[in-house]
Amino acid sequence: MKIVFFTTAHNSLSQRAFVELVDRGHTVIVVIASSEDVMLEAVEREHPDLIVAPMLKKVIPASIWQQHTCIIVHPGIKGDRGPSSLDWAILNACEEWGVTLLQAGAEMDAGDIWASRTFSMRGGSKSHLYRHEVTEAAIQGLLETIAKFESKTFVPEPLDYSRKDVKGCLQACMKQADRAIDWAEPSASILRKIRCADSFPGILDTVLGMQCYLYDAHEEDVLRGTPGQIIAKRDGAICRATGDGAIWITHLKQKGTDGQPSFKLPATHVLGDRLDHVQEAPLAVDQWCIGRTYREIWYEERHAVGYLHFDFYNGAMSTDQCQRLREAFLLIRRRPTKVIVLMGGTDFWSNGIHLNMIEATDDPAHESWRNIQAMNDLVRELITTESHLVISALQGTAGAGGVILALAADCVYARKGIVLHPHYKGMGNLYGSEYWTYLLPKRVGREKARELTEALLPISSRTAQQIGLLDDAFEEDAASFREHIRELAEELASSHRYEPMLEEKRQARKNDEERKPLQVYRNEELQRMWLNFFGADRSYHLARKNFVYKGLMPDRDRGDERGRTGGHVEFTAGHDAGWHYGRQPARDGYCGRASMTAEILDGRAMSAEMKAELRGEMRRFVEKQGQAPGLGIVRVGGDAASGVYSKTILRVAADVGITAHLEQLPVNTSADELRALLVQLNNDQAVHGILVQMPLPAHLSQKMVAATIASSKDIDGISSRSVGNLFLGLPSFLPSTAAAVMEILERTHMPLEGRRVVVISRSNVVGKPLGMMLLQKNATVTICHSYTTNLAALTRQADVLVAAAGRPRLVTDEMVKPGAVVIDVGINALPDGGIVGDVDFASVREVAGAITPVPGGVGPLTNVVLLKQCVQAAWQLAGEKKEWTSTACQISAYAGNDADHWHRMVATHTIVSASWEIAKPRFK
Ligand code: NAP
What we know:
Largest sheet: 9 strands, mixed
Radius of gyration: 32 Å
Bound molecules: NADP nicotinamide-adenine-dinucleotide phosphate
Structural class: alpha/beta
Strand content: 15-25%
Shape: elongated
Distance between the termini: 48 Å
C-alpha cells in the first residue's frame, strides 16, 4: 500500500512506524504537515491508499478525510480527547493508560475507532513513556488497523460513551498554571509535574532569579535542604530541595526575552556563575551509593562482566562527556573482568556529538572539532581493547556517530523496536568520523555502507540485523533486554570460546592495522570534517542552528544566518525513496529548514584573483618563449552583444598581457571566406587561441566553425575533439561558461564528491559539459530541461544547484534546499532595462547557504577562463604539455588539429551583458 504520514514532527513514534511499515513492503511518504496546503498538495501528488497521522497537532482538511481514510494515532484511552492526554495521565497518576487509533472526522479525536491498546503506567517522563509504552502500543494498533483496512470488510466502532470500555473523556489543554510548582510540595508531586511536561513544553519556573523551563528530573534519596534551595550540582545537573526531600534537574531552557527562542542545555551551563556558591557532589563511576540519585555514567560488575552505563540526555555527547566516558572505560578496563558491556541509556544509546553544546559556545566550529576528536579518542579505545571482549547493548535509539560508537565493540546487540540512523549527511552534509570508514564497511560491506550513508533513512533493528549491522536484536522491553544481555555476557565470560575469541580479535586487529592504520582512517575522515567545520560551505553550521533552534532562529543570527521562515521536510521510502522539501508559513511549529542570508560568492573577486594568477603565468610564458600568447577573435557582422563581449575580452587580454586582435568581417562574408580566415589563423604561429563570436549571420554555420578551428587552438571547447575528450574524462579545452561554474565551486572549496548536483540546462555550452565535469568530480548529477516534470522536487534535493535555463527568476526559494549552494548562470534582460539571473535572488538568498549574484557571479569569470585556456594552448603549442592544477578541471590540450562535426553545437561565449537576450533568438 502507499501510505502517507501526516505528522507534526518525524519523531520517535513516526520513525518507528515508518520502519515497521517499510519492512512490511509498504511505500511510506512522511509529510511534515505544517499547513492545510501542504497536506492537500501531498494528497494530490501521492494519491495514497491510506493516510496515517502518528503525531499531528493540526486538523486534517475535510476535503481529505471525506475522500480518504485517515487514521489518527491518539495517545489516550478510548474516549479520551484533547491535546494533553499523556500530560494529564501522568499528572493524575493514572495506573493504566492507552493508545487509540481512530478515524479523522469533523470532531477532533471523536472519530470511529479502528484499534486500541492499554498499558500499565509506571514512573518516567512523558517522553520516556512515549518512546516505550506508547510507541509499542501504537505500533501494534497500527499494524492491526492496516490489516483491518486491507481486509476491506472491517467496520470501525463509533465512539460511544455508554460503552463500558470507553473510559476517557474530553480533557482541556494543560496550561503552565496547571503545572506550576510549589517547592514545598513532596518530591513525588513535583516529579510528576516536571515529567508530564518533558520533553515539551517544560515547566516554567524561576531558578536563582532566572526564568527557565525545567526538564529531566530524577529522585534523590539522601541530600536535603530548605524547599526550593539548590543544594548540589553534579554532571551538569542541579539538585533542588523539595517539601520532603530533593530532586535532580539535568536540563534547563532559559525563557527567551522579547520572544527570542532559546534551547535546552545542561542546568549548570545555563545557570553559570549563579551556582558558584553551590557545592559539587561528585560520585565516582564505580562508587556504590545508597538510595536513588542521579549520575550520567556508572559502573556495575557481576561474574567477570563489567557494565558501563552512560545515560546522556537525548543521547548527545559533548566533548566533556566523551572524555569522561573514555576515562571511565579506561578505568574499568583495568578491572580483572573478561567482558565489558556498554549499556548506553534506556531511551538512547548515543546520537554522537552534542549539537546544543556546540551551538552554545563562542566558536562552534572549534567546539565541533574538539567534540569529534573526543568521540574519536573514545572509539579508538574501544577498537584497540585487547584485554576484554566488548559488547554494545543498545537499549535505545542510536544515530550518526552513536551508531558507529556501537560498532567499535566486538558484538553489537539491540533491543527489538529501536530505530537506527547510520548516517551523518542529513546534518548539513556532515562527512562524519568516529572511524566509520573502517567500522561500517567491515560490518556491512562497502556497497551497503555507501547505501546507508547516502539514503539517510532510519532503519529498524530487524533490517540492521539482516544486513549485519547488528549481531542480534531481541526483547521488546528494556528490562527484559537488560536481563537477556546479562545472560549472554556472563555466558561469554565463562565460555571455553572466550580465549580463542580474544586471540582471534587481537590477530584481526593486527592484520587490519597492517593493511591500513587506524590513524589513516582518522586523518582521512577529519580532513573532510575540517571542511565541514571550517570550510566555505556552511551547510553544517546552518543545519545545526536549525536543528538546535527547531527552525526558529534568534534575531541576532538573522544578519548572518536568518531564521524567519520554515520549510517542511518529507521523505519517502519503499519504492520511491528520497527527500523532498516544501513550503511552510513563518514560525509554524516544526521547521525542517531555516532561512538565512546566503554567503555571496563574489565572481568579480574570484576573477581578480584569477587574473593575478594569469599574469604570473604570462610572465613565465614570456620569459621562456620570448613572446606573449596570441588570441584571434573573429566577429562577423555588427551584433551588439558580441560587440560588447569582444571589447571585454580585448580589455581583459590587454590587462593580463595576452596579444589579442579582432578580425571584424562584414555581415555578407561568405562561408568560404570565413573558413579561409579560420584556416589562416590555424596556421598563424603567433595565434594560439581562436574564438569566433556568436551569433553568426544566418547564412553561416556554427558547425562549419566548430569543424574548421584547429582543436589545438579551440580554447572554448567547441570542437568534437574537445567534446569527446571531455566525455571520456581526458584532458581537454572546456566550454568557458561551464568551466567558470566549476572554477567557482573549486575556489570556494565546495566538496563535490558524493554530493547531489542539479543542473537546469542540457545546452551544449552549459548543461552537458558541466554535467561531465561534475561527474569527474564524483558528484551525483541530475540534468533538468524544459521537459523535466516536477522540477522543484528535484531541485530541492540539490546540495549544489546550477540554473542556466535563460528564464528570469525561474528558481524560487521553495525550490531550494536550505544551505544549498546556488550558482546562477542566467543573464536575462528585463523590459525595464535591468538584468536578472535565473534565480529569484531576493528570496533564494534567504534559504541558500551560498549564492552567486547576477551580475557579478559567473559572468566575470567566463572570459578569464577563456584567456586561461588560451595561455594553456600556447604552452601546448610550444611543446609543453603543462597541467594546470589550480582550476576545477585540469586542462592539457590535445595537440591534434582535426575536428569532427558536433551536431547542434552552439558555440556561444560569455555575454556579460543584457544584450545577450536580444541576440539570442537570432543565434538559435
Ligand atoms: P539554451 O541553449 O537556451 O539552454 C537553456 C537550457 O535550459 C535548455 O536545456 C532548456 O531545456 C532548459 N530550460 C529552459 N527553460 C526551462 C525550464 N522552464 N525548466 C527547465 N529547463 C529549462 O541557453 P544557453 O545558451 O545555455 O544559456 C542559458 C542561460 O545562461 C541564458 O540566460 C544565458 O544568457 C546565460 N549565459 C550566461 C553566461 C555567463 O557567462 N554567465 C554564458 C552563456 C550563457 P531544453 O533543452 O529542453 O530546451
